[in-house]
């Protein structure tokens, strides 16, 4: 004779929504023998309910709904037996939010990584372009890394031919976003052998010392 439901769902369910509008959740219990107190939880945290919003029927409102609410679970439980419960998972859908540009200066033969951070729901697909043309990946030089929120392109030992604008394009069914990376490959700095530098310092030091020794008689005469 006891039945618990949230928004007329007697079992756990997912509720799709968009950012902005509020979402109302209504928990009801039907018990022909007695009044029942209800509890609400957001994740593991208990929601404070006002008096008059706890017995047999309890309503909560998520306002405004934001992207951070995606995946959050709200659970209504029976106070005297918390094993009796119904949960709802918020499925907040939003397009990729990716804009802007970045300039990178790298020496020849150095490695470089370009990273796009783009959340979206549903998950987006990504593509890389160079100078507005689909990027052709060279084996052993280009490496792609992708998670649900991070899209990276790495280039090993950059060359002058790698100069250009790289674009990270992220698309989902709700929209798209892009970010440009302006890569400038600089000339490689000359590297001086450490041994040659040490040898030069030693030669200069000895030359100065020999010069002082050779002129010590004149120096003493002056003093």
How are the elements arranged and paired?
Layout: E1 2-6, E2 13-17, E3 23-31, E4 38-42, E5 45-46, E6 57-62, E7 73-78, E8 85-92, E9 101-107, E10 112-117, E11 125-130, E12 133-134, E13 142-146, E14 150-155, E15 164-172, E16 175-186, H1 194-214, H2 216-222
Parallel strand pairs: 2-8, 9-16
Antiparallel strand pairs: 1-3, 3-6, 4-5, 4-7, 7-8, 10-14, 11-12, 11-15, 13-14, 15-16
Q: Overview of this structure, please?
A:
- The chain has 223 residues and is mainly β.
- It has two domains: 2-92, Immunoglobulins (Immunoglobulin-like, Sandwich); 95-186, Immunoglobulin-like (Sandwich), CATH 2.60.40.
- It is 13% helix and 44% strand.
- The protein has helices at residues 194-214, 216-222, and strands spanning 2-6, 13-17, 23-31, 38-42, 45-46, 57-62, 73-78, 85-92, 101-107, 112-117, 125-130, 133-134, 142-146, 150-155, 164-172, 175-186.
- The strands form four sheets. The protein has a five-stranded mixed β-sheet, with no helix packed on it. It has a five-stranded mixed β-sheet with strand order 9-16-15-11-12, with no helix packed on it. A three-stranded antiparallel β-sheet has the order 1-3-6, with no helix packed on it.
């Amino acid at each position: 004779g006891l039945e618990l439901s949230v928004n007329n769902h007697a079992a756990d369910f997912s509720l799709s929504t968009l950012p902005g509008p509020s979402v109302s959740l209504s928990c009801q219990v039907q018990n022909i023998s007695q009044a029942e107190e209800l509890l609400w939880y957001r994740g593991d945290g208990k929601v404070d309910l006002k008096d008059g919003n706890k017995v047999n029927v309890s309503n909560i409102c998520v306002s405004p709904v934001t992207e951070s609410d995606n995946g959050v679970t709200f659970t209504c439980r029976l106070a005297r037996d918390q094993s009796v419960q119904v949960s709802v998972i918020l499925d907040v859908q939003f397009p990729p939010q990716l804009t802007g540009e970045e300039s990178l200066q790298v020496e020849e033969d150095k490695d470089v990584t370009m990273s796009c951070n783009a959340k979206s729901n549903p998950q987006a697909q990504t593509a890389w372009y160079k100078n507005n043309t689909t990027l052709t990946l060279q084996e052993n030089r280009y490496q792609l890394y992708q998670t649900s929120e991070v899209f990276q392109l790495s280039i090993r030992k950059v060359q002058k031919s790698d100069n250009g604008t790289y674009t990270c394009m992220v698309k989902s069914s709700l929209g798209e976003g892009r970010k440009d990376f302006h890569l400038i490959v600089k000339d490689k700095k000359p590297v001086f052998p450490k041994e040659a530098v040490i040898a030069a310092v030693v030669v200069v030091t000895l030359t100065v010392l020999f010069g002082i020794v050779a002129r010590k008689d004149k120096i003493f005469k002056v003093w």
